[in-house]
Amino acid sequence: MFSIQTYIERRNTLKRAVGSGLILIMGNEEAPMNYTDNTYRYRQDSNFLYYFGISLPNLAAIVDVDSGEEIIFGDEFTMDDIIWVGPQPTLAEQARKVGVYRTEPYGKLSEKLAKAAQVHFTPPYRYENKFKLSQWLAIPVAQLKAKASETLIKAIVAQRSIKSAEEIVQLEEAVNITREMHLAAMRETQAGKKEYEIVAAIHAKALEFGGELAYPIIYSINGQTLHNHYHGNVMTEGKLALNDSGAENSMHYAGDITRTIPVSKKFTDKQKEIYNLVLQMQLSAINALKPGITYKEVHLLANKVLLQGLSELGLVNGDIDTMLTEGVQGLFMPHGLGHAIGLDVHDMEDLGENYVGYREGIDRSTQLGLKSLRMAKELEAGHVITVEPGLYFIPELIDKWKAENKFTNFINYQALDKYRDFGGVRIEDNCLITPDGYQVLGKPIPKTVEEVEALRS
Ligand SMILES: [Mn+2]
């Protein structure tokens, strides 16, 4: 937990930004897997963690902006609870650690809300919170998202987007645990093994360093499938293994790193060409990071490097800027360059992606690739973002575009045939925007062909 002062100041900043009314921050409950008492790993809501710090189920909190009153609602543990889960500090003791001096039984919350003239709440994403809010506020479940407070959403996004020095320490720790996960994968990857054997080694490192997974592991010889969670393939010589995995540290901050490594000890020449192109995209993008530049510009810069490289390989031909404008690159990189990261791996996505990554005047494109860009607006000092270009050969997508005669004037479909079984490459790091540029978070993780091969020998 951060210091008591951190939480008090965070709530004071929020109060000033919201101005008036009652702010409601819902905590998360346990989530059952197959019956009530057999639950998934517990994860507290990130807004609750940010303003109230307590990682326990069945809590909710209010901040009355007008009176300044702050209350955490929750029920004290009974002897029956203590028999099963052991002795616990009282809710009042927990609340004092985050500077809240009033607690009330959970059942009192609805009365408090009923008396309020205006309740600010964030869009609920868990079903139990949807049901509760619907009942308490008499809003149909389907309308909750639309009735959420834009004032509160914008205030939280503005505040949580700028990471404090103590948050950067936590994010670096998360990246350093993530680094251990990736080093383990590089050491353990071997032809003949099943993917899930490596997945086990990756997960083990997160646990070994007191963390957990920030999101389900993507580790696959089919890297061209972007979010591939199938881990049952036998790895074979000559394939690439794409590892997109990250730790959540004990303070619940996330790391999100991708490396692509050869299943054999060394990259083939063909793999090296594609890998080095993605590396060039990533380094060009990282070097462009600074306050004031829009992340959309950086995304387009990486895609320009991509098209130049593909042109040199003879896979596309034509004027680079024309291809970029028309969206030829979508066939090869059908996703965005990156996203904000913090307490959430896609930071604050519960509040709405466009509030986090867009602003008035920057609209979301409908073009393949750009439409999945989660962060498009100007970067500011204190932002932490992922930089994760990729290059994929997706046979199904290639076949579709070819059948539609799409961009036949630019794309050399015949040359592309030789890459049908190539797979995909993605390289991802987490970067802090500083007043005069950027800082790649965490200790370096092998990234060049030479560095990766050195670990594979
Ligand atoms: Mn990512």
Describe what is shown at a glance.
The protein is α+β, with helices and mostly antiparallel strands and 457 residues long. It is built from 17 helices and 17 strands. The model has no long low-confidence stretch (mean pLDDT 97).
SSE layout:
Blueprint: H1 4-18, E1 22-26, E2 32-35, E3 38-39, H2 46-52, E4 60-64, E5 70-73, H3 79-85, H4 91-96, E6 103-104, H5 109-115, E7 119-120, H6 127-137, H7 144-147, H8 150-161, H9 165-188, H10 195-208, E8 212-213, E9 218-220, E10 240-245, E11 247-248, E12 257-262, H11 269-287, H12 295-312, H13 320-326, H14 353-357, E13 384-387, E14 390-392, H15 395-403, H16 413-416, E15 424-426, E16 429-434, E17 437-440, H17 449-456
Parallel strand pairs: 1-7, 5-6
Antiparallel strand pairs: 1-4, 2-3, 4-5, 8-11, 9-10, 10-12, 13-16, 14-15, 16-17
Bound molecules: manganese (II) ion (MN).
Residues 256, 386, 388, 428 line the site of manganese (II) ion.
Question: What features would you highlight for this structure?
Answer:
457 residues, Creatine Amidinohydrolase, Chain A, domain 1, 2 domains, binds manganese (II) ion, Creatine Amidinohydrolase, 5-stranded mixed β-sheet, 3-stranded antiparallel β-sheet, alpha+beta, 14% strand, single chain
What does this structure look like?
39% of the residues lie in helices and 14% in strands. Strands 6-5-4-1-7 form a 5-stranded mixed β-sheet. A 3-stranded antiparallel β-sheet has the order 9-10-12. The mean pLDDT is 97. The protein is an alpha+beta fold. Strand 2 and strand 3 (38-39) form a beta hairpin. The longest helix is centred in the middle third of the chain and has 24 residues, at 165-188. The chain has 2 domains: 4-161, Creatine Amidinohydrolase, Chain A, domain 1, CATH 3.40.350.10; 165-456, Creatinase/methionine aminopeptidase superfamily (Creatine Amidinohydrolase). The chain is globular and about 70 Å long. It contains 17 helices and 17 strands. The structure holds manganese (II) ion (MN). Manganese (II) ion binds at residues 256, 386, 388, 428.
